[in-house]
Specification:
This protein is α+β, with helices and mostly antiparallel strands. The chain has helices spanning about 1-25, 30-35, 40, 50-60, 120-130, 135-160, 165-170, 170-175, 185-210, 215-230, 245-250, 255-265, 320-330, 335-365, 380-385, 385-400, 400-420, and strands spanning about 65-70, 80-85, 100-105, 110-115, 270-275, 285, 300, 305-310. A hairpin with a 7-residue loop joins strand 1 and strand 2 (about 80-85). The protein is elongated.
């Protein structure tokens, strides 16, 4: 357990430092965007131009583009119109690959700026957070680092856990470290204390972060779907009406009536309005609420009559799906507004501090000229507690990159123990 804690933490810590720093930047991205893009994002005054008029301004500016969706503006943010210049329809939950958001001042109807979604500051920070902008191979490294953080948490708790009543009484120094202490004891107590206090939120942070990864994310989604149950689906099919044309249903000239119908149905948060692909499908209006408690209801609207034909409520979705949504928004520092941003920043700084204290502790404790001198590896099968072994197997299955790393760790341990130690050769740098 000590060797797993040391090796995993030692190798994953640099990546975790990168995740912490980029995570802080992402948490404060809304303020940074408004500061650097205020001319584009901030309206000049109260609304004067209809939403249909704003969309028409975008259509005139980009006559060949496909309009994907519209987020009506408010007192603080201009209306955002998502378009695909190449006419490429989005697939799945993401936007079109060439997506651009055109911002319109609802006070004047003037276009204030256009942001390519792939170049948006939030997207750039997200890519650096997940892969340093290097793509899928690097994302596997961040997935491995996040998985090793779970190992560091579990092994750290196991190593700290007091075995006797007297040992429990001596844990005061780990919950409230003596900063004035000397030597390695002070650094160990600081490292342990931060880890203990942050363990619950760190577990949630790691698990929600792994939901975006390629391998672990697939397994997490399978488990979530298996336990969550089926979420209610919005019915967007419309009954046939004689004499109606496709143009009458899908024209963005009807968008104000669609929004009014959604507001009448109780959708009073920030909205995302999506036009139907054909005359047999209703408009979709969804709330994009990110403030606790969430209100993410959505409705289907028949633009020919202004009638709400279907509605789904966030409160009716399965509990596991709700918790997943809450967890992701919390991970992105969106859930509790400014308080959430401050809390996520404090958590990231705590991760940085725990890593720094861990490195200092290692540096002070290591024998001169060696990387470390861990306890000798015992007989793995005989010495590993059954519970820990089962946890290791479960983690290796759920987190495939970690499972491969576990196997590599065990193979290298055996090679080092059998081939090198039995020959009586001591390497100049002890990699144990």
């Amino acid at each position: 357990m000590w060797r797993l804690h040391f090796v995993g933490g030692f190798l994953a810590a640099p990546i975790m430092l990168s995740l912490a720093v980029t995570g802080i930047l992402f948490a404060w991205n809304p303020q940074m965007e408004r500061a650097f893009l205020s001319d584009t994002l901030v309206p000049s005054g109260p609304a004067q131009v209809s939403l249909a008029g704003q969309v028409e301004a975008v259509r005139q500016e980009h006559p060949d583009a496909m309009i994907i969706s519209v987020e009506p503006g408010d007192a603080e943010t201009n209306t955002g119109v998502l378009i695909s210049p190449g006419g490429i329809a989005p697939e799945g939950f993401g936007g079109p690959p060439d997506g651009q958001t055109v911002y319109v001042d609802e006070a004047s109807g003037a276009i204030t700026g256009t942001l390519t979604e792939s170049d948006r500051p939030a997207q750039v920070i997200r890519e650096w957070h997940s892969s340093w902008g290097l793509g899928q191979p690097a994302e596997s490294l961040t997935e491995l680092a996040g998985s090793w953080l779970l190992v560091a948490i579990i092994t750290g708790l196991y190593l700290w856990w007091p075995r006797t009543r007297a040992a429990w009484r001596r844990t005061r120094g780990t919950w409230l470290p003596r900063i004035s202490g000397r030597g390695t004891r002070r650094w160990r107590e600081l490292h342990t204390s931060i880890g203990l206090w942050m363990t619950p939120v760190l577990l949630v942070l790691v698990i929600t972060g792994l939901t975006w990864t390629e391998y672990a994310g697939d397994n997490i989604r399978v488990l979530r779907d298996a336990f969550a149950g089926e979420a209610p689906q919005l019915d967007t099919a419309l009954a046939a009406t004689n004499g109606e044309t496709t143009t009458a249903q899908a024209s963005w000239a009807n968008v104000d009536g669609v929004v009014a119908a959604a507001r009448s149905a109780g959708l009073d948060q920030q909205l995302v309005v999506t036009a139907p692909p054909d005359d047999g499908t209703a408009w979709t209006v969804a709330q994009n609420d990110v403030v606790f408690p969430l209100d993410r209801d959505q409705v289907a609207v028949d633009a020919r009559t202004g009638e709400v034909t279907s509605m789904t409520r966030f409160a009716d979705t399965p509990l596991m799906s709700q918790l997943t949504t809450y967890g992701i928004l919390w991970h992105q520092a969106e859930l509790f507004g400014l308080l959430g941003q401050i809390g996520m920043t404090a958590l990231a700084l705590g991760v940085v501090a725990a890593i720094v204290f861990g490195y200092v502790l290692w540096w002070r404790r290591r024998p001169k000229g060696e990387v470390s001198r861990a306890p000798k590896a015992g007989r793995l099968i005989r010495t590993t507690p059954i519970g820990i072994g089962l946890v290791a197997i479960l983690l290796g299955v759920l987190l495939p990159t970690l499972g491969v790393a576990f196997l590599a760790f065990l193979v290298l341990e055996r090679i080092y123990s059998v081939v090198i130690r039995r020959r009586g050769w001591k390497p100049p740098v002890d990699l144990a």
